[in-house]
Design a protein that fits this description.
The protein has 14 helices and 24 strands. It is an alpha/beta fold and 554 residues long. Strands 1, 2, 3, 9, 10, 11, 12 and 19 form an 8-stranded mixed sheet that branches. It starts with a strand and ends with a strand. 55% of the residues are buried.
Length: 554
């Protein structure tokens, strides 16, 4: 496995940024048609894909199940799902999942009443806003990790795919209005084979570049996302002139663990799919006051309900709990081994305890605007997975559609990269910029400003928004961004400063888009505009390179 410090790539046919499900699926398709380099900021396997617990939603291969999956996806998206994208997702999904199985992914099998596995029959469960049980799982609650493992193993065996671990893309190189390559820099500790002192970026030319770099959950102080989710790909695309879309729609997962000193560990929606209740501090089930589907309502509804129940009249936080004590028909430890193990480390037991929960930032429905084949508004640049926006999720993603999205649109983007047949272009190299590492005090200052930005986003652009607060958020974002830009102008560089730039850019895009959408829809709730406004806003927001937000029908 090559590391950033050891490799000098020069040119490659296809550059894939990100090694989650979308990037790996694209690389598999591209490998038969040229050399592929997959760049990943940390070790292979550290991505949002790896942490996906709930499962992968996929219809059985018949028209009735596919139509039902489409209906549920459109309904969850609150009037904004781009229907052709959703049709592609649900109709191509069964084939993509069948490929995963062929390539060695081990999904959980169904069992009979005596607990014996039924050969060839997979366990399918139900989650919020799904009308049928169609969610496949692996190892109980480690579906993303299993899919990532199988895809990475299959990709390694193909040849013509190289991996640059602990490597970060610092800039996309453009010429004549087209992306022709990228600059790479080391992003890891010396123990990983890369040197923190190797700050000068290295150029790589490519016929086509795919951004499959995942989401941006670290833009919020409370998040289920891993530390790598800093929106790097979205920021790179915007800096290269690509349009962003639907950036106001950030999904907050309703049930993250709320224990002092513990991470906001995701408590999968599958828990509610298996019968968990939500209770307030008085022990009452409260979802009947908010939605007829109770605990299986769409995520945005459940998250806001928990937020309201978790706040008293003075604005002080009060506890909300997930309750599985009444679920007696399944072995919770076997069904949810990762969750059970994590809770045990904090003295909690699914079968016997009320589990304190609160919402946390989870998934970005918006991203780099693409067509249904992953093409962005900049030639030579493609995007797929959470970094991209096809409109498939609308204003609110249906549970467990994200892994399927990565598979379907990763494969579609690869096909487009091949079909477009762009040649290698050798643009004139810029003079290398002198850069020095941040000093210890500067590193701490950057961390402090990142924390300030994340807290501002949680306060001003979280579950409940209004104009005054959003403008305060924009002011805070501008102040933080100015600090990062000042350090860069002084010749400073390094992974964390680049991540800070990306977080600031993504934060600005979310805030501007949220200000422009003067209605409430899906995951975007404006207290000053609490109603959905189809006449003016049943359109997708598009943020252009000029910084203006416009609304377009797709």
């Amino acid at each position: 496995m090559e590391t950033g410090a050891e490799a000098d790539y020069g040119e490659v046919d296809f550059l894939v940024v990100g090694a989650g499900v979308a990037g790996l699926r694209a690389a598999v398709k591209l490998a038969g048609h040229g050399g592929v380099l997959v760049v990943t900021k940390e070790g292979l396997g550290e991505s949002n894909t790896h942490y996906a617990q709930g499962g992968i939603a996929v219809a059985a291969e018949n028209s009735e199940d596919i139509a039902s999956h489409l209906k549920d996806t459109v309904r969850a998206g609150d009037g904004l799902v781009y229907r052709p994208a959703a049709e592609a997702l649900v109709s191509e999904g069964p084939l993509r999942v069948a490929e995963l199985i062929e390539w060695g992914t081990n999904f959980d099998q169904a069992t009979d009443r005596e607990g014996r596995r039924l050969t060839g029959e997979f366990l399918r469960t139900r989650e919020g806003a799904h009308s049928l049980a169609r969610i496949l799982h692996a190892n109980g609650d480690a579906t993303g990790a299993e899919i990532g493992r199988a895809l990475a193993a299959y990709a390694r065996g193909l040849g013509r795919i190289r991996f640059a671990e602990w490597t970060q893309v610092t800039r996309l190189i453009t010429a004549g209005g087209r992306v022709i390559g990228a600059e790479l820099a080391d992003a890891g500790p010396a123990s990983a084979g890369a040197s923190e002192q190797s700050l000068s970026p290295r150029r790589i030319g490519a016929r086509a570049v795919l951004l499959a770099s995942g989401g941006a959950g670290q833009v919020y102080a409370e998040t289920t996302n891993p530390a790598v989710a800093t929106g790097d790909g979205i920021a790179l695309a915007a800096e290269a002139g690509a349009e962003l879309a639907d950036m106001e729609f950030y999904q907050f997962h309703p049930t993250a663990l709320a224990v002092a000193g513990a991470p906001r560990f995701l408590l999968s929606e599958a828990l509610r799919g298996e019968g968990a209740y939500l209770r307030n501090e008085r022990g009452e089930r409260f979802m009947e006051r908010y939605h007829p589907l109770l605990e299986l309502a769409p995520r945005d509804v459940v998250a806001r309900a928990i937020a309201r129940e978790g706040m008293d009249e003075t604005g002080q936080a009060r506890p909300v709990f997930l309750d599985m004590r009444q679920v007696a028909n399944i072995d919770l430890y076997r069904r949810f081994p990762q969750i059970s193990g994590f809770l045990a480390r904090h003295g909690l037991d699914l079968a016997h305890d009320l589990i304190p929960v609160r919402p946390a930032a989870h998934y970005l429905m918006g991203g780099i605007r693409t067509d249904l084949a992953g093409r962005t508004s900049v030639a030579g640049l493609y995007a797929a997975g959470e970094a991209a926006c096809t409109g498939v999720h609308g204003a609110n993603r249906l549970a467990s559609n994200s892994l399927l999205e990565g598979l379907v649109f990763g494969a579609r983007a690869a096909r487009a990269m091949l079909a477009d047949g762009l040649p290698l272009v050798r643009g004139e190299a810029d003079a290398p910029k002198e850069a020095t590492a941040l000093g210890a005090d500067e590193e701490q200052h950057v961390e402090d400003i990142i924390l300030r930005l994340r807290q501002a986003m949680w306060i001003h652009a979280g579950l409940l928004r209004e104009e005054r607060s959003l403008r305060q958020g924009l002011a805070a974002q501008a102040a933080c961004g100015a600090v990062f830009a000042g350090l860069a102008r002084s010749g400073k560089s390094g992974r964390r400063l680049r991540e800070a730039h990306a977080l600031s850019r993504v934060a600005g895009a979310i805030l501007k888009s949220a200000l422009a959408r003067m209605e409430s829809r899906g995951a975007h709730f404006r207290s000053d505009y609490p109603q959905r406004d189809d006449e003016n806003f049943q359109r997708h927001s598009v943020l252009g390179r000029d910084g203006r937000v416009v609304f377009e029908e797709w």
